[in-house]
Amino acid sequence: MTLRTETYVVESTHGRRLLDYLELTKPRLVLMVLMTTLVGFYMGSEPVPDYLVLLNAVLGTALAAGGTLALNQSLERDIDAAMERTRHRPIPEGRVQPVECVLFGSILVASGLVLLLVAVNVLSALLTAIISVTYLFLYTPFKQKSSLCSLIGAVPGAIPPVVGWTAAQGTLGLEAGILFGILFLWQIPHNLAIARLYRDDFLCAGIRFLPVLDGEGRSTGRQAVSHCLALLVVSLMPTLTGFAGEIYYFAAILLGVGFLVYAVRLAALRSVSSARQLLFASLFYLPLLFVVMALDRIPV
C-alpha cells in the first residue's frame, strides 16, 4: 500500500510539473497564433497545399510561440506576482523556477526556428525570430514605460499570418501586408477592451496601457473606434486586390460594422460591461472573418 501511494504521489507530481510547463506556453494564445498562421498559409497556397510544409510550419511556429511566451513569463514574473489574474501562474507560485523557465523557453524557440529554417524556408524563420525579439525585448519592457506599448505589441502579434504566407509562397507580397494590417488593427480594440476590464490589476503592476492612464476613458474610446474604422476599410482589401471573392467582401462589411458598433458603445458608455462586450465582439469577429476569407479565397 505504501509503495502504491508513493508511486501515485510521484506520478501526480510529474503530471503537475508537465501541466505547469504547458501553462508557461499559454496554449490559448498559441492556438490563436496557429489559427492566423494557417490562414496565411492557406491564402498563399496552390489549390492543393503542400501538407508537409504546412505541418512543419505549424509545428515550428507553435514551438517558437510557446517558447517566446514562456520566456515572457520569466521576464514578467514580478509583474505577474503583483496582479490578481496572474499571481497563480507557475513562476509566481514557485512551482517553476525562473532559470528552468528560461531554459525551457529557449529550447522551444531554438527548436522552432531551426525547424522553420531547415524544413520551410529562411524567410519564415526570420519573421518568426523577429516576432520573438520584438515581443520579448521591445513590447515587454515598454509596457511599463508608455501607452504606445499596445502599438508595439501589435507588430509581433500581426506577423504570424505573414509567416504562414511566406511558408506557402516563399516571398512577401501585397497580400501578406493586407493580412498583417487586418490583424494589427484588430488587436488594438481587442487589447483596449482587456486593459479596461483589468485596469486596476494593471495599475497595481505599473503597466501603462492606455485605459490605465486614461481615467475617464475618452481616449480609449476614440482609439477603439478609429482602429475599428480603419480595420473595416483594410478588411475589404482582399476582395479589392483579387485574392478573396464577393461573399467575403459583404461578410467583411457586416462583421466590421458590427465590431464598430461595440467600439462606439465603449466610447459612449466607458463602462466595464461595454468593454466586456467589445472583447466578446473581437473574439467573434476575427475567426469568422478569416473563415469566410478562406472559404471564398481566389488562389494566387
Description:
With 300 residues, the protein is mainly α. The protein has two domains: 1-171, Tetracycline Repressor, domain 2; 173-300. It is 80% helix and 0% strand. The protein contains 15 helices and no strands. It has helices at 2-24, 27-44, 51-75, 77-82, 98-119, 122-142, 149-158, 160-169, 174-197, 199-205, 210-213, 218-234, 237-240, 246-269, 272-295. The longest helix has 25 residues, at 51-75. The radius of gyration is 20 Å and the shape is flat. It starts with a helix and ends in a 5-residue tail after the last helix.
Number of discrete helical segments = 15
Helix content: over 70%
Total number of beta strands: 0
CATH fold-level name of the largest domain: Tetracycline Repressor, domain 2
Q: Could you say how many structural domains there are in total?
A: 2
Query: Can you tell me the residue ranges where pLDDT is under 50 for at least 5 consecutive residues?
Result: 5-11
CATH class of the largest domain: Mainly Alpha
Mean pLDDT level: 91
Q: Quote the distance from N terminus to C terminus.
A: 65 Å
Query: Which value, in Å, is the CA radius of gyration?
Result: 20 Å
Q: Look at the structure and name the CATH superfamily of the largest domain.
A: UbiA prenyltransferase
The helix/strand class is mainly alpha
Broad shape: flat
Q: What is the annotated CATH architecture of the largest domain?
A: Orthogonal Bundle
Strand content: under 5%
Main β-sheet description: none
